[in-house]
From TrEMBL:
Source organism (scientific name): Mumia zhuanghuii
Name of the protein in question: Protein translocase subunit SecE
Keywords, sorted A to Z: Cell membrane, Membrane, Protein transport, Translocation, Transmembrane, Transmembrane helix, Transport
Family: Belongs to the SecE/SEC61-gamma family.
Keyword set includes Lipoprotein: no
Ranges annotated as spanning the membrane: 41-62
Amino acid sequence: MSETSSAPTESTRPERTSPVTFYRQVVAELRKVVWPTRSQVANYFVVVLFFVLVMMAIVAGLDYGFGKLMFWVFA
């Protein structure tokens, strides 16, 4: 039975890139991004705000209901 090591050896380890190369690659990738328009951002904001308000109302209602239930059970 032969044991194989899963640790990378010196010959299989990829070379490190320089910070300048890394920065150039980041800028190149960011140029590929499709940025949303102002109206899309406004629309997303309204949708997220509505969702958060609905979730807050649900959690507040459950908190109020369970609080009243606990006071009724243990009072």
